[in-house]
Amino acid sequence: MENPGGSLTSWGAANLRAVHQILDGEPKLLRDPVIIRLLDPHWVDQVRKEADLYQQPGLMGLRSHIVLRSRYAEDRLAQAYARGIRQYLLLGAGLDTFAWRQPPGLEDLRIFEADHPATQSQKIQRLSASGITMPENLRFVPVDFETENLRTALQRSDFDFNLPVFISWLGVTVYLSMEAIDAVFNFVISLPPSSEMVFTFAQKRPIDAIHATAVRAAEVGEPWKTYIRPEELGWKLAKMGFSSLYVLPPEEARELYYTGREDGLPPPLGAGIACIMV
């Protein structure tokens, strides 16, 4: 990342989560009232005035993917909690707001947000300016995935390496080198059995909306670096020792989350959300 003030693409993702709350119909794929509080009220008013802009196919498809990946990860987290996992690690958390909208009954869940120091500082400042208090079960862990060891960074917190953990890693791998991605996979496979991670990856395929997103990211100093084909990913993770890899099929996502929608929010066109188990 080339932005010393923090990730700009994380704000872009947050903006689209907010647009989902403002413009899209019910039921929401991801109900996130907190993100509205984090953003500039003038920007929220502008979204309402320029609603047609956000109903363009490219932007609708992009925000659909962004809210879907968070919804899927949080659904898997709920299942992991039900089987006894009590640690949640968000890698590259950006402006994720799960810690501020935790469902009732998860009070003993310990949440760790690991992110680039500049992006994390930016988020903390915005939370403070918005009057949003910190949950007691949240820990911030600054780390640069390209230059620092994730385990070493987590050792500076009260993260328990002897307990299984659920991890989300959303919208991050495309910005990292393959070496940095592999370092995270190697960390995950070192965790106790039943640990799980939901993550996203980008495939190199000629879809205009995806190409346009990559171009915009490069223009703000956060170029896309790594594309991964699902078959290569499966081979790599099996060799590392993961017990399973599941790539969410578009057909399943459509059935689970888009059946009966009347707002035109499009289901995903391709794979790009995956789940692995230790």
Describe the structure.
There is one protein chain. With about 280 residues, the chain is an alpha/beta fold. Helices cover about 40% and strands about 10% of the residues. A seven-stranded mixed beta sheet has the order 3-2-1-4-5-7-6, sandwiched between helices. The radius of gyration is 18 Å and the shape is globular.
Helix fraction by DSSP (H/I, runs of at least 4): 40-55%
Largest sheet: 7 strands, mixed
What general form does the structure show? globular
What do we call the CATH homologous superfamily? Answer: Vaccinia Virus protein VP39
**Low-pLDDT sequence parts:** none
Keywords, separated by commas or semicolons:
single chain; 278 residues; alpha/beta; Rossmann fold; 7-stranded mixed beta sheet; 7 strands; 12% strand; globular
Structure in a nutshell:
The protein has helices at 8-23, 33-38, 41-49, 57-82, 117-129, 150-154, 178-189, 208-219, 230-240, 250-257, and strands spanning 87-91, 110-115, 138-142, 166-169, 196-200, 244-247, 273-277.
